[in-house]
């Protein structure tokens, strides 16, 4: 299996093998499907890390803006869960296995560790903005890679996720600019 994309994992842990894939009538070659499954699972690891970081901030944010941020972060968490679900279900639809456990995320995430001891609005939102920016960059690279492999369904999924993450990043940055 090729790992041409900049964001594909360099080492695979329990990645798909042709013999492990279930059959499907999706008209992509088995090699392309295996590559997309691996790419989807790599971004699923980031998505899981990101959504748990949002929830960490949601639980711990303090200050005058608490309720507005608490509710905003709850909405963002729900959106991030939807993005993770889209990636996991696409991996399975392509004949693979979704690797969406916390353990898989811990092994596969490309995002920096989130500050566990902070409750500062600025620190939490900055950490989320940094994670979101790195995540959306990897998602865009994944969309480009899927397009190059002529898997337009996966490319469209990644494009949809990138639009949502761009909006979340905008919210973080707008709040930090105040």
Sum up the structure in keywords.
single chain, 178 residues, mainly alpha, Ferritin, 5 helices, 0% strand, elongated, disordered N terminus
Describe the structure.
The protein is an all-alpha fold and 178 residues long. It has a single domain (28-177), classed as Ferritin. 67% of the residues lie in helices and 0% in strands. It is built from five helices and no strands. Helix 1 (30-60) crosses helix 3 and helix 4 (121-148) packs antiparallel against helix 5. The radius of gyration is 17 Å and the shape is elongated. It starts with 29 loop residues before the first helix and ends with a helix. The model is unreliable at 1-14 (pLDDT under 50).
Lay out the secondary structure:
Elements: H1 30-60, H2 66-93, H3 102-108, H4 121-148, H5 152-177
Short summary of the structure?
The protein is built from five helices and no strands.
Quote the distance from N terminus to C terminus: 47 Å
Question: Count of DSSP E strands?
Answer: 0
Mean pLDDT across every amino acid position: 91
Shape: elongated
Number of separate domains: 1
Strand % is: under 5%
Helix content: 55-70%
Task: Spell out the CATH superfamily.
Answer: Ferritin, core subunit, four-helix bundle
Using only C-alpha atoms, the radius of gyration works out to 17 Å
Structural class: mainly alpha
Order of secondary-structure elements = HHHHH
Q: What is the CATH architecture term?
A: Up-down Bundle
Q: What is the CATH fold-level name?
A: Ferritin
Task: Report the CATH C-level class.
Answer: Mainly Alpha
């Amino acid at each position: 299996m090729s790992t041409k994309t900049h964001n594909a994992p360099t080492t695979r842990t329990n990645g798909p093998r042709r013999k492990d894939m279930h059959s499907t009538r999706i008209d992509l070659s088995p090699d392309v499907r295996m590559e997309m499954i691996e790419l989807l699972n790599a971004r699923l690891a980031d998505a899981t890390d990101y959504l748990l970081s949002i929830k960490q901030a949601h639980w711990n944010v303090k200050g005058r803006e608490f309720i507005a941020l608490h509710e905003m972060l709850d909405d963002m968490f729900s959106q991030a869960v939807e993005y993770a679900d889209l990636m996991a279900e696409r991996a399975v639809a392509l004949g693979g296995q979704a690797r969406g456990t916390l353990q898989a995320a811990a092994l596969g995430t490309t995002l920096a560790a989130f500050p566990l001891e902070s409750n500062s609005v600025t620190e939490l939102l900055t950490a989320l903005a940094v994670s979101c920016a790195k995540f959306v960059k990897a998602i865009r690279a994944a969309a480009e890679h899927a397009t190059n492999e002529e898997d337009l369904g996966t490319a469209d999924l990644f494009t949809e996720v990138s639009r949502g993450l761009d909006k979340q990043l905008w919210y973080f940055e707008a709040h930090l600019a105040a």
